[in-house]
Amino acid sequence: LNSGGPLYFVSKSSVANWPGIGFLARITGTVFIARDPREAGLQKKLFDQRLSHGHRLLFFPEGTSTDGLRVLQFRSSLFAAYFGKGLHIQPITVVYHAPDGQSPRFYGWWGEMKFETHLLKTIATRRHGRVEITYHPPVAVDDFADRKVLAKTLEDTVRGAMPKERQI
Questions:
Q1: How far is CA 49 from CA 34, 60, 122, 127, 140, in A?
Q2: Are residues 51 and 84 in contact, defined by beta-carbon separation less than 8 angstroms?
Q3: Helices (H), 12-124
């Protein structure tokens, strides 16, 4: 996702302390946020700062990881910082296809799964699946009445590009 130009990932704050991954996230300028509705104002302020410096932020508005078989409802709070700035958001659909003979959930990471175990299983697999990425047309943020309407529209766009059996 970062191959088209520099992007700054947005991640939950605990990732900053993960061995290896946390170091890489910190040195690449990842924006760390707390997943707490009471901190939405602080998150907006942080996004405002980064956007004012021209940073392109990449976040997954579901706010959590999943089994990869469906798109969850988008949380709208992170979209608030984009209004009134003449900005566009480019929705992207990411579809993971498991290696032959593996569960369709092979690449999913959710619930109480340990990240390290999941990562090692994924890396150690002899035959890998594939990732399909769809870049949808960018949408002008200020064309929407509010962050909730924007979030729902983007969610529908992303879900619509999932394989039919995953459009739940």
A1: 17, 19, 36, 43, 20
A2: no
A3: 21-27, 40-52, 115-124
Single-letter residue type at 168:
I
Q: CA-to-CA distance for 47 and 79, rounded, in angstroms? A: 9
47 exposure class (CB count in 10 Å sphere: 0-12, 13-18, 19+): buried
- Helix H or strand E encompassing 147: helix 147-160
Residue 91 near residue 157, CB atoms below 8 Å = yes
Amino acid at 10: V
Asked if residues 166 and 70 have their Cβ atoms less than 8 Å apart, the reply is yes
Chain mean position to CA 58: 6
pLDDT digits (tens, 9 = 90+) for 77-116: 999 999 999 999 999 999 999 999 999 999 998 888 888 8
